[in-house]
Amino acid sequence: MNDLNLLWIIQLAPLVAFLLIQLLPKNAKRTAPLIAMGAALLAALSSLALFYAHRDGNNMPQQYIYQWLKVSDKSLWPFVTIDHYVLNIGFLVDKLNLLMITVVTVIAFFVHLFSYYYMAEDKSRARYFGFLSFFAFSMTGLVLSTNLLQTFLFWELVGLTSYLLIGFWYEKQSASTAARKAFVINRLADLGFYLGIVVLFILTGTLNFTDLNHEFLRQMLPASTLTIIGILIFMGVMGKSAQFPFHVWLPDAMEGPTPVSALIHSATMVAAGVFLLARAFGLFSSSEITLLFILIIGTLTALVGASLATIQRDIKKILAYSTVSQLGLMVMAIGAGSAAAGMFHLTTHAFFKSLLFLTSGAFIHHFHSNDIWEIGQRGGKRDKVAVAALCLGLFSLCGIFPFAGFFSKDLILEVLREHNLFFYIAAILVSFLTVYYSFRMLFVILFSKEKKDMHAHETALAHPHHSSTGAIELCRVIPLASLAIISVVMGFLGTGWLDSRLLLWLGGEETHVNSELLITTLILIVSGALLAYIFFKNPETAETRLTQSRGPIKTILERKFFIDDVYEFLTKKVGMGIAGAFAWFDRKIAKELMVNGTAYRILDLGKISSKIQDGLLQDYLSWAVGVGILVAFWLVKSNSGIF
Amino acid sequence: MSQSLTSYLFISAALFSIGLFGVLTRRNLVAMLISLELILNSVSISFMAFNRFVFADKSLGQVFVIFIIALAAAEVSIALSLILWLHRKKGSIDIEKAKDLRG
Amino acid sequence: MTFPILSSILLCPVIGLILVLFMPPKQENAIRVISLLSAAASLVLSLWLCFHFNSSNPAFQFVEHVEWVKSYGINYAMGVDGLNISMILLTAIVIFCGVLVSWTVTYRVKDFFANLLFLVAGVFGVFMTTNLFFFFLFYEIAVIPMYLLIVVWGSTDKEYAAMKLTLYLLLGSALMFAGFLYMYSLPGGHTFDLVALKQNVLFTPEQQNILFLGLFLGFGVLAACFPFHVWSPAGHVAAPTAASMLHAGVLMKLGAYGILRVAVFLLPEGARHWADLIAVLALCNIVYGAFVATQQKDLKYIIGYSSVSHMGIVLLGIATMTPTGFNGAIFQMFSHGIMTALFFACVGPIYDQCHTRMLGDLGGLAKKAPIISTFFIIAGLCGLGLPGMGSFVAELLVTIAAVSAYPLIGVISIIALLITAYYVLSAVQKVFYGPLSPAGEHLHDIGAFQFVPRAVLVGCLLFFGIFPGIFIEWISVYTKTLLGG
């Protein structure tokens, strides 16, 4: 089983599953989840096999390239001497890819398992599993791609599956609106990505990642051009990884089923942007300004995400804003120059965030509510498995030793501290807020007094819970447990205890234990948790206090920094204004004036001309005589010398 | 009064113009017909004049005049019968009334 | 003599037409079957042609030449090269699917299919001929049945739309023919044969400029070039489904085809002279068409303006005057043709059963008719340039060519991607998602038989989206030699 075969299996197994599910006759639709899970398992195992085969990190990168499209045989820009423009498609295998593909396929498999539990009652689950498989196919293509165009291709496909899955329950207006918003905002950001690719292609003739290194680019293009291209392609990252100000689609994307949020909107798709940053780091690092821009955007994102998470009531929204914030941190790390730190955090975040989302899914499914107060009041603390998973995930998120998040977040803080003190302080603030909102969520769920809500109790009884079915319950527990374990273990791969394996793999350096940093983070965690405790040790009073308080900060946070309002303005007033003007032009000028106008003028001309035909014999005669005289005059004149 | 071609042509032209003027301006159809006869007669004079002063040995002009007289008679009979029919239809022989064929 | 494949392809709809005309009007099913068989025959022959086409030969292949009026150079001449092979295939696919989709027409079935076949014969003729006189002849044959189809079987505002469409197209053809006659009258001319004109007539620069402008305007009207595009959305809306499929899918491509085949081929200098203007007009098409589409409330109007926008991409590709741009333009002609045929094939059943196309009246149709919804969404995704389908490749090629030739225009044209996504997804949301509207109560989905034509269209889109190399191979030799390079 050589590499190429494994790669094809990883890439095509989910696609085959998707096609099979579409072709299933109605009564066989029940097997759809099994087909999807089988494909996901196959892909995960193949990735692990591939990883194992290359575990010593030798003879990489390897590429398998197929020519896709010949673009031009002439130079496309003056003074550029390239005369062979070709677009390719293929597989790339190197350390970064292997890590990412393993993360993606493993988490995908666990999400497939969990979905079997979560979607057990949904009538359209065949469609769901089909889309989930198609997502796996697209994401794989993105991760294994060899060049920027192929990445863009699968980037769009991944965006499509995100659209289809966010709007999965399409009868809900809010879901289809959220799906459209996600797609359109991603499209907006991708305009920059697309343009960047086109410009880069025209000027250098190549989009291959193996070519896009520092030296090659510096030699081919001036710094200003590299900056522009870098920022344009970064725009795509901003859209996909929900960076400010393109982050607004991610919280709305929570309309989709929770396993979708776990897979796509926390672990894999949104991480694709960060992955691209690391993948094409040579391009971005070729200009200092680009890196600074990336750093600034990342900081803004991290701060906006963390601050908005502190006032959310919906458990998924808290996690969504938290994801925005953590993505911001990853981007900050890369902007500060360390792709290794960013990728490390991406890896750990993927596991603990998906764990957190699946946990929230367990809560939502069990207690029929997204609101953390309601979950707490309906007895959230009694679901031991979910609470345990929640704690593990949150502690990882907050960066508490010895969970994975501790190591990756500390690495980022360290990188930032060495780079620039200002951004380091911003990251510290973000970490503080992270601890605050995490513990807020935990305390509200744990400390809420259980209300004997008869209504909820009755619905719970009327709804036969699947804790009876062994298989489904397993599908609930196994993913949670596995992800939890990995979340714990993963972190150690970045530390000295395991020879900083993961870090070296990513191209980073060995870490040293920095006591100053340790103390800082410890203070952060303690103070954040304390603050949350003070506010939320009694959730009921906290709730009443929150709803009654007013103030500028609260307004700004509730209106999400007015970003959505800006988008609304731009779309409705500016966009539709232009559209309205064009439509007016079409109606009035093109139709009325040009077409109808011409037609009616010709009709008018005809009416005027027809007045000659007045029916009076003598008028006709007069005309004939008059013209006859003129003709006679002319004839005589031309034939003789008279006149 | 000298007897030359020009004076006869003058008379012919004058009669022709009077006739033309009558055809174009008279409202009464019979008056139009009379003017038309005038035109025809003016042409006859002109033919006779040319015959007498230019081609004295031939008789073509006189033959033509005979033709014209005969044709004029035939044409007038048809025209008068049409006027009679029009009078029956419209109640008048005013040409301003006969403008049904218009655009 | 080699088998006259081109005339055979042309004959299929003609024979079908004659047979249909002789059928008694009551035999509706027989008429439908005859039409289907003739369409299928032309499709099979076109596919055969594609397989036996030699991609590396720049000259015309499968040439047929029969002299008709020798002294005026009017000959029945047919030939295939990189440019029209894809158009012939496109026409064959669209008519095959169109006939299948029209199975549900019940009013005056015989006349309907007669007109349809007549129309297709004209279109095939235009694409295949290399003699300008026959080009004009077949073009007129293609325009007249369209009028009848719209005015008898159409819907919204059909009399006005049919008249507007026909008069506008005839205006275009008048300009076109005037150009042909002028070329005929030049020294070295006295023929209507395309290749002979190219070889014998020496055009002075002034002649090139004026002639190209005239020809471009004549063909541009047909290609819905801004600002002569208004006949197109109205025509789209009023025509019955199969006629819309042919109109948007094939008829509009006649214009762009004419520009390449006649204007750019014979008058490259003139083309270069006017290229800037064409690029600007194309940009107007792209951006203006997309923006106006967002304001429309009628589903077919949205598709109509989206067609205007996509034809802009074709024109922009032509305006770049580079092989890459031409490749993109021809590819876009093909994939847009298929995509828009698919769009109309989806809207047709909805209108037939819900009796409305207004976004406000429709809603939640995905619940009742998931298959139609899926096809429509696929068409929409192709329209907004989703990778994996032909449109993406076409737009990519045109964008690369445009950014390299007219950087500012190329950059602005990218905005269309965003606007198109907005109106397509808004339309999809209003029509297919959300709660079920009263208009959709009696909607039932299409069955297996009607599944076939739409599946064929989707298959074509996917095939050429995943393997664009095959298409480019057909046309690249032609585009390289078009400008004499």
Structure characteristics:
heterotrimer; A: mainly alpha; two-stranded antiparallel ribbon; B: 103 residues; mainly alpha; Helix Hairpins; 0% strand
Notes on the protein architecture:
The complex is a heterotrimer of chains A (643), B (103) and C (485). Chain A is built from 27 helices and two strands. By secondary structure, chain A is mainly alpha-helical. Chain A has a two-stranded antiparallel sheet with strand order 1-2. The model of chain A is unreliable at 461-468 (pLDDT under 50). The radius of gyration of chain B is 17 Å and the shape is elongated. The longest helix of chain B has 31 residues, at 60-90. In chain B, helix 1 runs antiparallel to helix 2 (29-53). Chain B is an all-alpha fold. Chain B has one domain: Helix Hairpins, CATH 1.10.287. Chain C is mainly α and 485 residues long. Chain C has a domain at 294-478. Chain C is built from 20 helices and two strands. Chain C has a two-stranded antiparallel sheet with strand order 1-2. The mean pLDDT of chain C is 91.
Topology summary:
The complex is a heterotrimer of chains A (643), B (103) and C (485).
Chain A: H1 3-23, H2 32-53, E1 62-72, E2 85-93, H3 95-118, H4 125-143, H5 148-166, H6 173-204, H7 214-220, H8 223-240, H9 249-252, H10 258-267, H11 269-279, H12 281-284, H13 288-309, H14 315-335, H15 339-367, H16 372-377, H17 384-398, H18 404-419, H19 421-447, H20 454-462, H21 470-490, H22 501-505, H23 515-536, H24 539-548, H25 552-558, H26 563-609, H27 617-639
Antiparallel strand pairs in A: 1-2
Chain B: H1 5-25, H2 29-53, H3 60-90
Helix pairs in contact in B: 1-2, 2-3
Chain C: H1 5-22, H2 28-51, E1 61-69, E2 74-80, H3 82-101, H4 109-128, H5 132-153, H6 158-185, H7 194-200, H8 205-222, H9 231-238, H10 241-266, H11 268-294, H12 299-319, H13 323-354, H14 365-368, H15 370-383, H16 390-405, H17 407-413, H18 415-432, H19 448-466, H20 468-482
Antiparallel strand pairs in C: 1-2
Helix pairs in contact in C: 1-2, 1-4, 2-3, 2-4, 3-4, 3-10, 3-13, 3-19, 3-20, 4-5, 4-10, 5-6, 5-10, 6-8, 6-9, 8-10, 8-11, 9-10, 9-12, 10-11, 10-12, 10-13, 11-12, 11-17, 11-18, 12-13, 12-16, 12-18, 13-15, 13-16, 13-19, 13-20, 15-18, 15-19, 16-17, 16-19, 19-20
